[in-house]
Amino acid sequence: MGNAAWGLLVLTVLCAILYVSVTVPFWVLVALISDILLVLAAVTLLRLPLDYPLIAALLTLAGYSINDSIVVCHSIKALGKPHMPEFVSASDPTLQEKIDEAIALGLRPLSSRVFLTSFTTALTMTPLLFQDGVLFTFGVVFVLGTAVGTLSSVFIVGIHASDIVMGDTHTQE
């Protein structure tokens, strides 16, 4: 488990480097932890063994979850950021509304793409649910994980992406 923790730490640092922000990698990590914990809860309820194949499936899910979060952040940056003015007043009462609208503009075209990608991934993993042993475990982790991971990427990371939308927008007092 120690090597897995190091891997997750490296992925978090990479997210921080990609987005040069403190809050975005934090929310990516929150989404990742929630994904892993929810899938682990389901695995526990199904009484699947905690073994190396399960750890491998969870690490694969972690990579998928972080990739989903990065795609969401990139879309918000590419599609939402251009709608922010270059200069804003920190005391502007509509600032949060502008940020929320820019995030929504970044998420709107992405949501169908992200959900379609997750659906096809889960669909290809569904036959594994009818297998035994390691394949069943991997199928459970991935079918549940893609659903949970997609929702967390959009509703945890996407909604808290105000740093990405603000980017190099200058705030004035």
- Give the CATH architecture: Up-down Bundle
CATH class: Mainly Alpha
The gross shape turns out to be: elongated
User: How many β-strand runs?
Assistant: 2
Radius of gyration: 18 Å
Beta-strand fraction estimate: under 5%
Structure class: mainly alpha
Q: pLDDT under 50 segments (min length 5)?
A: none
What share of the residues lie within helices?
A: over 70%
Question: Can you list the strand order of the major beta sheet?
Answer: 1-2
Characteristics of this structure?
173 residues; mainly alpha; Multidrug efflux transporter AcrB transmembrane fold; 6 helices; 2 strands
Question: Would you summarize the structure shown here?
Answer:
With 173 residues, the chain is mainly alpha-helical.
Description:
By secondary structure, this protein is mainly α. It has one domain (2-172): Multidrug efflux transporter AcrB transmembrane fold (Up-down Bundle), CATH 1.20.1640. 76% of the residues lie in helices and 3% in strands. The chain has six helices and two strands. A two-stranded parallel ribbon has the order 1-2. α3 runs parallel beside α5 (134-158). The radius of gyration is 18 Å and the shape is elongated. The relative contact order is 0.18. The mean pLDDT is 80.
